[in-house]
Amino acid sequence: VPKDTVKLFLTYNYIRQVTVTSFPLLEHLLLLEMGTQFVRPVTIGKGAFRNLPNLRLLDLGDNKILQLDLDAFVGLSSLTVLRLFHNNIGDSILEEHYFQDLRSLEEVDLSANVITKLHPHPSFYNLTALKS
Fold it and tell me: What is the pTM of this model?
């Protein structure tokens, strides 16, 4: 991937796993779409997006089964939009510290998952930019 890439569209592929070594340092990348993979589950490891420090939009929606490490989003302090819809995600997405580094987050889409109760982790309350 060229170092000056701003948008990267990886939807409709066969990506099974994303790890900290999946991406080189891409300081210009603002948008990454990795939704609707044709394999299940899609696993996002610890610090998987650490090399994308200026990422603004991350779309992981419609992967049907998404497995997230608790520290999957570490280092994404510039992220403003996170799409996690239709991924068979349960209550732990709110109850654990998944959102701890997402201080710029304005929008998170958790629709069409299997969330049964709202009991947010204390770090969720630090999302002061959250609008929707």
Answer: 0.96
